[in-house]
Amino acid sequence: MKWSNYFIPTQKEAPKEAETISHKLMIRAGLIDKLSAGVYTYLPLGLKVLRKVENIVREEMNNSGAVELLMPSLQPASLWKETKRFDKMGKDMITFIDRHNREMIFGPTHEEVITDIVRKYVKSWKQLPIILYQIQTKFRDEIRPRFGVIRAREFLMKDAYSFDINEKGLDNSYNLMKETYKKIFSRCGLKFKIQEADSGVIGGKFSEEFVAEGECNELEVGHIFKLGTEYSLSMKAYFVDKYGKESPIYMGCYGIGVSRIIAAIIEGNYDKNGIIWPLSVSPFEVVIIPINMSDYEIKNISEKIYKDLIENGIDVILDDREESAGFKFKDADLCGFPYQVVIGKKIKEKKVEIKARSTNKTEDINFEKVTDYIKDILREEKK
RNA sequence: CGGGGCGUAGCGCAGUCCGGUUAAGCGCGCUUGGUUUGGGACCAAGAGGUCCUCGGUUCAAAUCCGAGCGCCCCGACCA
Quick one: which of A221, A180, A155, A192 has its CA closest to A59? Predict the structure, then answer.
């Protein structure tokens, strides 16, 4: 990607409404734009990070044996009345009356919908256990949206639901998800702790939350629940066991705030100059900075290195703007790309400089060896 | 929903207390031309405003009064 063709509206100053570091940096680095309280656009760079996080979540969920599906955001209120949660959720739900005078809601979570699916199609112990999940936008009319995307009214969530024949099976599914979550958060470069939590309006017997470490006390990046038979009883989701007896399905549910992960990563990975992305979720792995675009040699070699890196499958952005060197350095640091390839005067000695964002260490290397060098360090880091 | 703060150019702000010629200002950003290019360059010229909205007071309102809307922070609440 060439910077001049892309869309990264960086800002020197953050709007005053942003107070937490992740919120400020997400706006300054051109990741998000606020439309309304708790409602954000993901700008191209932000979307790229979101997709990378999403894919890590998807990969690890799939590895665990969970199966992806996609449920609707629009749901009939009637479903929520079956479980008595329509009143329990109350004003946290965004509701409306459709033209046929039916009460509808924008899904804040999907226990009701998934249980409806399972009660329709799962009839026998032979179909269990199963874990179904989706990555989808949730809507919650938060009492008080805050801290940018950390508490938003519309946000991307991965929600998974497990179905088992008994409590022991539920424990297995629960522990499987717990281990999967550890892998996901580690791959995202997050430091976290797991603590027992209140189950709140989701209900169930037992829950634990994954809390990311950072300056901002954000209420958590993941939460796992043992629901038991609460929903299966109220919604009549039964299966027939091997003795021919009908029993309620044991359920668990497991949420990850995908968009919240991004803020959590930033809270734990930044310095005075901006974001320091872990390689696994960085919007680009490498940024190429030609110091002077009107110098033909610098320009040509930058283009050459750029093409070379692309051909080798490296996610690279070329800062081909007619801006001063300092300006480009500031933007590169702010946006937090892990590696900067700086092409300047040293090109006369066939050398370019490679800087690691996280350590600030630089190394001069022959411009023809850049691709191999980058490939080596990326491979090393991805281990 | 209780408490606090804010709303003036894309962003950050001054001006509001004490109404009037500071007849709407500054920094950054933006446009054009030129010179630059290793840490948010310099010179010159320029563009950009329903001063949140509506109503009231007044000879006169960004400024005073009333209502509303929006945004942020603390709390309660929550995944």
Answer: A180
Q: How many CB atoms lie within 10 A of CB A179?
A: 12
Q: Which residue is nearest to nucleotide B42 (CA to C1')?
A: A324
Domain(s) labelled CATH 3.30.930.10 in chain A stretch across 3-268
Q: What is the pLDDT of residue A216?
A: 61
**CATH 3.40.50.800, chain A: domain bounds:** 284-382
Contact in structure between A225 and A209 (CB atoms under 8 Å): no
Q: DSSP 3-state assignment of A170?
A: helix
Q: Nearest residue (Cα to C1') for B1?
A: A143
Quick: pLDDT tens for A9-46.
999 988 888 888 999 999 999 999 999 999 999 999 99
Task: Supply the CATH classification number for the domain A284-382.
Answer: 3.40.50.800
**Architecture of the domain made up of A3-268:** 2-Layer Sandwich (3.30)
- For the CA of A51 and the C1' of B21, the distance in angstroms is 58
pLDDT digits (tens, 9 = 90+) for A60-111: 999 999 999 999 999 999 999 999 999 888 889 999 999 999 999 999 999 9
d(CA A156, CA A135): 7
pLDDT of A217 strictly over 80: no
